[in-house]
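Bench log. Compound arrived from synthesis this morning; before running ITC I wanted a structural hypothesis for how pyridoxal-5'-phosphate sits in the protein. Inputs:
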Amino acid sequence: MEVYAQDGGVVRRYAARLSADPALIDRASLREGGRIVQLAPQGGVGLDVLDLSTANTTGTFKSWMVCLAVAQCLRKGSPLVLTQSSGNTANAVAAYAAHAGLRAVVLHPPASRRRIVPELAEADGVQFVEVDAAEDEIKTAMVACSEASGVPIAPAREDMYEGHKLRAHFLADAARELGRQWDWHVQAVSSGYGPLGHYRGLREVLRSDPGGVRVPRFLGVQQEAVAPYVDALTGGGRETGADRPVPAVLEPTLFRRALTDELVAEMREVCAFSRGTVRRLANTRYLQLEPRAVTLLTEAGVSVARDDAGAPWERAGLYALAGTLAAIEEGLIRPGERALAVFTGGSAPAPPRTYEPHWLADRTDAEEVTTRALDKLRP
Ligand SMILES: Cc1ncc(COP(=O)(O)O)c(C=O)c1O
């Protein structure tokens, strides 16, 4: 059951908290939304979902951040932008850039091809480059290309922090209206910008209203195959050895393997500040919990998109809820507490077909191919 919603422009509503020009946010905005849905309690734990999927144009929590990023690009006056993504940011940049009249070159790894929405990728003014290379090599090629060409990267790092900090303002208003506070804030983590931005925002809320909101304990959930934060913060919690099979990647969006020291330090700090933690969810455990997570969401009115075989199309949002259910069963989240799991994506329908990239590149020619893609979009 939906208990709280804001639609028609969350980013605009909190524009005074941002460094972007509100008029440019208006130009960039695609009416970003968000809502809180109450689920059936589990094991004596009150359970809510922060649904950042259903109301946003490309179906994920990236919309708020990309709206801000595009507003900042409009301020910089560059007609062209560059981005790289595991899929969701790619779709959001393509949609927001087209809406704001910008042109965009988007790099993504092969595993993300099926996540790209063909109508967005095939629009005028956008070029997609599929790069068969490791994630850090794709980033290096993009940065080199940006430096050589002067074309800005969107979202910039500051946009990621700033865009996601709006979540704290949204939740402070929701908490006030609902008369409800959360003991836990749970998100599936890849780079970690969602929660890191959120906790920066929470400090901002507390500065203007000390004691106004409870600081929820952060629970970051990582899939078994890609859990660098867990390894860095907790030493892994997993047996390793040459004879152990390599676990499958269940969600390609949660793909970031190499973290910077700054990201690890800030996540460590968020966990210390909130008395939180990051945990690895084993594949077998996730798959056991997935049907229950889907049922709970569906019963509460959150639609979960499926592929042709009936499996959930995107699992990042489900990982947060499955991780919450696991933490309840294991007694980390305790009876009497209230948890908020963030549904970061998963309700937008699966694209009807797989798109064809405009360009294919690998680690040896990614920079050169990206430069050619940029040239193609120059007036
Ligand atoms: C749907 C979805 N959920 C969660 C994440 C994790 O984002 P982050 O770790 O940067 O907060 C991503 C990003 O890749 C995503 O697309």
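What the model suggests: The chain has a mean pLDDT of 95. The two ends are 49 Å apart (CA to CA).
ITC booked for Thursday regardless.
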